[in-house]
Automatic annotation (TrEMBL):
The keyword Signal does not apply. Belongs to the V-ATPase H subunit family. It comes from Ambrosia artemisiifolia. Residues 328-440 form the ATPase V1 complex subunit H C-terminal domain. This is Vacuolar proton pump subunit H. Pfam families: V-ATPase_H_C, V-ATPase_H_N. InterPro entries: ARM-like, ARM-type_fold, Armadillo, ATPase_V1-cplx_hsu, ATPase_V1-cplx_hsu_C, ATPase_V1-cplx_hsu_C_sf, Cyt_B5_heme-BS.
Length: 443
């Protein structure tokens, strides 16, 4: 696409002078349409608001007829910019498209055509207008809405919703525009996901995984808005079971936690916390949240001064729910939680022979993840208590696991423990020595 076309914006388009008289002479618009356009075009927002108040559906009819009958690019862009401006000033005007008097007009068709065959400017405007207009229809339960019971073939709202979901997924996979495709498609999706049928078709189109990469910390105003709208989409999907299954198998949860940890934008934090609240009781989300350190993050969020009551309620709810989850965890889950957070202390299980007998094989899960984190603590922690407990736990693993010595040697633990034998803290040196003895002498 030519660069000037790619960067075209409404302000530039609305500066054009469109030869409405010529269109009337060539019978592309009627005399009535010309009168309406003369009254409306190039007028102030207040004057236009009055005209739309008095005769809104007539203007909608004129705009739709122009888009249907006139192919000239300059004019098509101009009318799309006019409609976009009209809806941006007051989104409730989308209801005008569903007025009784427009029952026999195919209100969606021109926009659907431009969504697939138009320039980027036309696609972007059409997607935005369609999302607002289709969402404003009064009957969403599958009974006939505007024009859908008429005799002639009229584009139905189902066609529009399906077409928009297809368009959004394509834009997210292979953006037509380098920096506008993704924000525009997410903006439409956030408007449309309130509809159950859209949730369903978005999940069927494998759309959930396209959202996950967009959940990442934001710095600029634009990226914060995109992050907010992405989180809005994820929150809306968290009410829909099939979408929750997709979220569970993706990197959505760790990414949301990463964002909420560092975000100061209240509207973003609020949406993520409300999403966590929805997911907490579903599947293994509760245990995953505990694993990823969410209880500590919730504590620090609760300590901040938020003004939003819903956010404060959701944080309290989440805090209670996570505490319940921790209570339900098995002793090994609790142990693993301690290790992953690096908060090692002499809680009873460390010195309990039954704990080690029953759970030693669980250290093999995820390619010895818990054991590897224990070794990382030995290398990186500056807390003498954590170092002493880590050395002791390593000696217990060697004692109780049939291949303990071999595994610990393969993971290069010996060098790390040897260094700690000269530690200034007596508790650390004592447990490092015990660990080395077990490593050399076996259980």
């Amino acid at each position: 696409m030519p660069m000037d076309q790619a960067e075209l914006n409404s302000d530039q388009v609305l500066k054009r002078d469109i030869p409405w008289e010529t269109y009337m002479t060539t019978k592309l618009i009627t005399g009535t349409a010309l009168q309406l356009l003369r009254r409306y075009d190039k007028k102030t927002e207040n004057e236009r608001a009055q005209l739309l108040e008095n005769d809104g559906p007539s203007y909608i009819r004129v705009f739709i007829n122009i888009l249907r009958d006139i192919q000239k690019e300059d004019t098509v862009e101009y009318v799309l910019a006019l409609i976009d401006e009209m809806l941006a000033a007051n989104p409730k005007r989308a209801k005008l498209f569903h007025d009784k008097s427009l029952e026999d007009e195919d209100i969606y068709e021109p926009f659907m055509r431009l969504l697939w065959k138009g320039s980027w400017f036309n696609q972007e405007k059409s997607s935005k207008i369609l999302s607002l207009v289709v969402s404003a229809r009064s009957n969403k339960n599958g009974l006939t809405a505007n024009g859908e019971g008429s005799k002639k073939k009229i584009t139905s709202s189902d066609d529009v919703l399906k077409g928009l979901v297809d368009w959004i997924c394509i834009q997210l996979k292979k953006p037509s525009h380098p920096n506008r495709s993704i924000p525009s498609s997410i903006n439409c999706l956030a408007t449309l996901l309130k509809e159950p049928v859209v949730r369903s078709s978005f999940v069927q189109a494998d759309g959930v995984k396209l959202l996950v990469p967009l959940i990442s910390p934001a710095s600029t105003q634009q990226s914060i808005q995109l992050l907010y709208e992405t989180c809005l989409c994820v929150w809306l999907l968290s009410y829909y079971e099939p979408a929750i299954e997709y979220l569970a198998t993706s990197r959505a949860l760790p990414r949301l936690i990463e964002v909420v940890k560092g975000s100061t934008k209240e509207k973003v934090v609020r949406l993520i916390v409300l999403t966590f609240k929805n997911l907490l009781s579903k599947g293994t989300f509760g245990a995953q949240m505990v694993d990823l350190g969410l209880p500590q993050i919730v504590q620090s969020l609760k300590a901040q001064a938020w003004s939003d009551e819903d956010l404060l309620d959701a944080l309290n709810h989440l805090d209670e729910g996570l505490k319940d989850n921790i209570k339900k965890l098995s002793s090994f889950d609790k142990y693993k939680q301690e290790v992953l957070l690096g908060h090692l202390d002499w809680s009873p299980m460390h010195k309990d022979p039954n704990f080690w007998r029953e759970n030693v094989t669980r250290f093999e899960e995820n390619d010895f993840q818990t054991l590897r984190v224990l070794l990382t603590i030995l290398e990186t922690s500056s807390d003498p208590r954590a170092l002493a407990v880590a050395c002791f736990d390593l000696s217990q693993f060697i004692q109780y696991h049939p291949a303990g010595r071999v595994i610990v040697t393969d993971l290069k633990a010996k060098e790390r423990v040897m260094k700690l034998m000269n530690h200034e803290n007596a508790e650390v040196t004592k447990n490092a020595l015990l660990c080395i003895q077990r490593l050399f002498l076996g259980a």
